[in-house]
Design goal:
This protein folds into two domains: 172 residues, Rossmann fold (3-Layer(aba) Sandwich); 71 residues, no CATH class. It starts with 12 loop residues before the first strand and ends with a helix. It has a six-stranded mixed β-sheet, with helices on both faces. By secondary structure, the chain is α/β, with parallel strands linked by helices. Helices cover 39% and strands 25% of the residues. Helix 3 crosses helix 4 and helix 3 packs parallel to helix 5. A hairpin with a 2-residue loop joins strand 9 and strand 10. Bound molecules: adenosine-5'-triphosphate and magnesium ion (MG). Magnesium ion (MG) binds next to helix 1.
Length: 257
């Protein structure tokens, strides 16, 4: 099923990037990235392994600094922010990591309480319980609240990882390879969850993937990172109608591998 097209307010970019460059030594990873992400949309970033997708979202969330260019998130230029403002911005940007590591020695409840207690100090016990139960319910795993991560499936752990990011009510969600390593049925569940999160929490999201089904199901728009730049952006159909041989080979590789 292809995602329904929704109206996007193009006057309202939540993330705005111009001329972004990033190198590690001689390795020029990002070579002039321009990108706008609009309020309420799910933007999928596609690209082969090692093209700099994770580097890009680490720069967006202030975990890495750009070498050159402008990166504005919620109106703030990330690279120029003093530490305190950067920390405040980071609370609005939820980062769901490539390997959403949970704390193995803590229950699901404790894993979810952890970011909440650390970042919002004035909550009462019952408010904390309510928040934990509300996000667990949103990801459909309320019944696992007292379990240990080791007792959960890979897909369930991913969902808990997403819940742990959601608990701080971010305005932006950055998903790094949300379906990597999951079986096709579990991938469908995660894709649905990403769309439910968008609906319920009204988040703007960047979803990094090389899973074309995930791209099609979750992306309102697709941007493809090729040779350090977003050469092609558009709907799934628009992007893959491109005659660019790099796009075609990405598509063929994914659907024939
Ligand atoms: N902190 C770092 N120091 C040095 N090199 C780095 C660093 N982070 C990333 N790189 C290099 O930058 C390149 C892009 O890495 P990145 O993790 O963004 O790739 P990716 O597109 O996310 O790939 P994958 O699909 O495999 O996750 C790689 O060659 C990687 O080794
Ligand atoms: Mg990556």
């Amino acid at each position: 099923m292809i995602k329904e097209q929704k109206a996007i307010d193009k006057n309202n970019p939540v993330i705005s990037i111009r001329g972004l460059q990033k190198a590690f030594g001689d390795l020029h990873i990002l070579r002039g990235v321009d990108l706008d992400v609009y309020k309420g949309e799910n933007l999928v970033v596609l690209g082969r392994s090692g093209t700099g997708k994770s580097v890009l979202i680490k720069i967006i969330s202030g975990l890495l600094l750009p070498d050159q260019g402008m990166v504005k998130v919620l109106g703030e230029e990330v690279a120029n922010l003093p530490t305190r403002e950067l920390m405040a911005l980071r609370l609005k940007v939820g980062f769901s990591f490539q390997n959403s590591a949970l704390y193995d020695s803590m229950t699901v409840r404790q894993n979810l309480e952890f970011p909440l207690v650390r970042n919002s100090r004035n909550l009462s016990r019952s408010q904390i319980n309510d928040e934990v139960e509300s996000v667990l319910d949103a990801v459909g795993l309320l019944q696992t609240i007292e379990q240990m991560p080791s007792e959960l499936s890979g897909g369930q752990r991913k969902r808990i990882g997403i819940a742990r990011t959601l608990i701080l009510r971010p305005e932006i969600m950055l998903y790094d390879e949300p379906t990597a390593g999951l079986d096709p049925i579990t991938c469908i569940e995660i894709n649905n969850l990403i769309n439910e999160v968008q609906e319920k929490y009204k988040t703007t999201a960047i979803i990094i993937t090389h899973d074309l089904t995930c791209a099609k199901e979750t992306g309102d728009r697709i941007a493809m990172l090729l040779d350090g730049q977003f050469a092609i952006q558009g709907t799934f159909e628009e992007v893959f109608a491109s005659e660019d041989s790099r796009v075609q080979s990405f598509y063929n590789y994914n659907f024939t591998a």
